[in-house]
Predict the structure.
Amino acid sequence: KLDGRGTYRFFESEMDARMQARRKLELDMRQALARREFQLHYQPQLQLESGKLIGCEALIRWRHPDRGLVSPLDFIPLAEEIGLIVPIGEWVIRQACRDAMTWPSHMSVAVNVSPAQFKSDRLVETIISALATSGLPARRLEVEITEGVLLQENEKTLQTLHRLRELGVRVSMDDFGTGYSSLSYLRSFPFDKIKIDRSFVKDLATKPDGEAIIRAIAGLGKSLGMTTVAEGVETAEQMQRIRLEGCTDVQGYLISRPVPTEDLLEVFATYLKA
Ligand code: C2E
Ligand code: MG
Ligand code: MG
Ligand code: MG
């Protein structure tokens, strides 16, 4: 069928197919906000000492018309690259604040803020506006950043972090331990919370030193006055070990998978009864 249209052969090379797929994803993503295809799921965090749920992390989902549910791992990097993360991230912050207002008043909501979003001048204003519009007290909002934000550490990054802190917003270091210099970043800003990356929790069962690492991070958090959350806790054994090693909180499938806000009240109720 393509005979005589040799150029198409070239354009249909594998490389080009990938680029077309990417281009299509980009076009779709540009429409997704207006079409209300994004959705937030929430995953609760459990405070070990009290046995209470203390907050939830907002995790974005994209309900694509033909692809179904697209993982953030598959579109956030592209959104960052083309700058769409700024409007998408703004939507996340506003929606998360609104949703959190329907939860018990001691519960906080954590949003992930990516490097490109952090660099944009709008972040602090967006947060101020989202808090004001929703009525959510600043202390109930938490911003999660990864090492990527601090990688281009400069005056402005630190200034933004301090402005958030002055507002009363809490700041967490996400995926702790996976980067090259997690430790030195702890020195640059007084985080409220360290989120220990899921890979360390996984190592508990498989690596002989798995526990020592969790214990060291928990101890570090304690000395620095930061809470420590273990991410990706899937089994009761892992939770038991994590408790023994001194982490303050856990998050993971064992407590609950990320769920839409409508389903959260049921999860909250289970823990209230417990
Ligand atoms: P993250 O912030 O480290 O979020 C934790 C990820 O671990 C989530 O994946 C969550 O569903 C998953 N998880 C939680 N508990 C368990 C467990 O017990 N076992 C396993 N196997 N996985 C668990 P998810 O939702 O696919 O999000 C992936 C990443 O995408 C997030 O990692 C975050 O970096 C990014 N992301 C998600 N939502 C947003 C957003 O609204 N904005 C930005 N900028 N990034 C986001
Ligand atoms: Mg996170
Ligand atoms: Mg994480
Ligand atoms: Mg991550």
